[in-house]
Design a protein that fits this description.
Elements lengths: L39 H11 L6 E2 H9 L16 H16 L5 H22 L12 H16 L6 E2 L15 E4 L3 H9 L2 H5 L1 E4 L11 E3 L5 H13 L5 E3 L4 H6 L6 E2 L5 H10 L4 H8 L2 E2 L7 H15 L5 H8 L9
Keywords: Membrane, Transmembrane, Transmembrane helix
Length: 338
């Protein structure tokens, strides 16, 4: 581990009590002891990435960014080559029991191993034994241990962070070019503190009932069962108005090189059937959702969120807003690529 103060490369024995053995200064995280394998230098890298372009980020966005490596899913599944061992052992015992000069009980034992292996393979294919992919630390625990620990050692939270409960709703534009609808408080907080309403002449809302009348609506949601149902419900309630889906869509997660994914063991075939009958989700997307997978929209960086907003603003008139043009003239609207 690298000391965040003097950059000395410290072995475990040279950093007792979360203190550098070289410069004697304290640090926050012992990577061997926290579930997210965090250390101070890594947190600084993460916060620098999240705040690129001078943007603010939320606690939840840092939460997901911190968990990205520990939440990666192994492509080989939960058993890997382990299932091969009982299959080979079973075959050997069956052969010895039938053709060898040994007890026939070996054949019975071998057959039992083969049956066991077949059941395990079937359960894997059916999805019953596929593991959950969950966060290794709850968000409240992250606030207390990670953000709180950082504040205790360094005297303040990480630079550029805002905590969603402390973000107050801003004034809505009187004549917005479009509205942004999202059920995710972290997304709305991120857009609020980065002045999206003024810069893009956009209204922000968490519920359809809070939307301004008549304006086009851009929906931002998780790639999940709940997210797709929220989108479908919004489209139904907003019949006659233009509704743009800004994602996340399951197809985008499936196509991504290294997406952030979670998985529950819960299966909800009735909701999948409803989505199949009432949305344009592909069979592959429905299978992915039906298998318990999801990807949170709050795992996107602020720059990625704002890049989506800028694209829709260009098409819906926010790009022609005088305030936005003035901001662009002095460089406010040059967002990093998604």
């Amino acid at each position: 581990m690298i000391c965040p103060h003097c950059t000395t490369n410290l072995t475990r024995k040279n950093r007792p009590g979360k203190r550098c053995g070289s410069c004697k200064k304290p640090f926050v995280f012992e990577p061997k002891e926290n579930p997210l394998a965090l250390h101070d230098v890594k947190v600084r890298r993460l916060t620098a990435k999240l705040s690129e372009g001078g943007l603010w980020y939320t606690t939840t966005q840092l939460y997901y960014a911190s968990a990205r490596k520990t939440n990666k899913v192994a492509a080989g599944g939960p058993f890997g080559c382990g299932i091969v061992v009982p299959i080979i052992a079973g075959l050997v015992l069956v052969v010895l029991g039938i053709f060898g000069n040994t007890s026939p009980l070996l054949a019975v034992l071998g057959a039992a191993l083969l049956v066991f292996s077949a059941v395990i393979i079937w359960l894997r294919v059916a999805g019953v034994l596929r593991p959950k992919v969950v966060m290794k630390m709850s968000l409240p625990q992250f606030r207390q241990e990670i953000i709180g620990g950082w504040s205790r050692v360094y005297g303040k939270p990480p630079g550029g962070i805002v905590d969603e409960p402390h973000v107050q709703p801003g004034r809505q534009p009187q004549q917005p070019a479009f509205a942004i609808l999202s059920p995710d408080p972290s997304v709305l907080a991120c857009l609020q503190v980065n002045d999206v309403g003024r810069r893009f002449n956009a209204a922000l809302a968490a519920k359809v009932a809070d939307l301004p009348p008549e304006t086009p609506v851009a929906v931002i949601h998780d790639a999940s069962l709940d997210g797709e149902l929220f989108l479908a419900s919004a489209k139904h309630e907003l019949r006659g108005r233009r509704v743009i889906d800004l994602g996340l869509r399951p197809r985008a997660v499936l196509a991504a090189k290294d997406p952030f994914r979670l998985r529950t063991k819960d299966r909800q075939p009735e909701r999948i059937a409803w989505l199949k009958a009432n949305t344009d989700l592909t069979p592959k997307e429905l299978d992915w959702l039906g298998d318990g997978w999801s990807s949170p929209i709050a795992a996107l960086r602020p720059a990625q969120l704002l890049a989506r907003i800028e694209k829709v603003a260009t098409h819906l008139g926010g790009a022609n807003d005088p305030a936005r043009k003035a901001a662009a003239a002095i460089g406010f609207m040059t967002w990093p690529a998604a």
